[in-house]
Write a structure and sequence with these properties.
about 220 residues, mainly beta, about 5% helix, about 45% strand, carbohydrate binding, Galactose mutarotase
């Protein structure tokens, strides 16, 4: 495990935390956007390969609008026409995807998070990032503390825990995610070679605007 500086943003130092395990697997995380910068795993020949896309310097993340590896929210995905209704009141958000609001508008991904609880045990290494979003920020109601923990163990598992804690009496909406782009083999250019298996109980169709419909389909 190591901690180093990765540049400065908004007069705050950005930290680079590297988690390692006994098998040579390595996860690099930066406090800007609580971002997974790289994930090095050994292939069947024992060669370490970076299987997520990222940038070599902080400016790449600052200037990027694709949310590479970032923690996104308050609400991930699109909110149609950049508004929502809660408790009879309509809230208006900044439109950053045409007429729509995407991935919180950068509320969480374009800031420096505090670095907490860098831990090392006999079988795992972990780090926790924390930030607070205030009432009205990016149009969302209520004060909320957000925490994201990354834990790499010796079973080659990178576990991610996303948490949100209300700091006020105001109701709000939250739907967090981490947004890495995976490329499991840099030598293969087409995604058509891969099979993606996901376990779920229902899904929502999307509109032409890529916003979700209100109807759920159970399977």
């Amino acid at each position: 495990m190591s901690v180093s500086d990765f540049g400065e943003y908004d007069a705050k130092q950005v930290k680079l935390i590297t988690l390692k395990n006994l098998n040579g697997m390595r996860a690099e995380l930066i406090s800007y956007g609580a971002t997974l910068k790289s994930l090095i795993v050994n292939d069947k020949r024992g060669i370490g390969r970076d299987v997520v896309l990222g940038f070599n310097d902080l400016n790449g993340y600052i200037n990027d609008d694709s949310f590479f590896g970032s923690t996104v929210g308050r609400v991930c995905n699109r909110i149609g026409y950049a508004s929502f209704e809660l408790d009879g009141k309509k809230y208006f958000l900044p439109a950053n995807n045409g007429k729509h609001h995407l991935h919180g508008g950068g509320c969480l991904s374009k800031r420096v998070w505090e670095t907490h609880e860098i831990r090392k045990s006999a079988t795992a290494q972990s780090v926790k990032f924390m930030t607070v979003s205030r009432d009205g920020e990016f149009g969302y109601p209520g004060d909320v503390r957000f925490e994201v923990s990354f834990r790499l163990n010796d079973r080659n598992q990178l576990n991610v825990l996303l948490e949100a804690f209300s700091l006020s009496d105001a109701n709000t909406i939250v739907n967090l995610t981490v947004h890495p782009y995976f490329n499991l083999d840099p030598d293969v250019c087409s995604i058509s070679y891969w099979i993606y298996w996901i376990i779920f109980g229902f899904f929502k169709a999307i509109e032409k605007t890529y916003t979700c419909t209100k109807m759920s389909t159970y399977i």
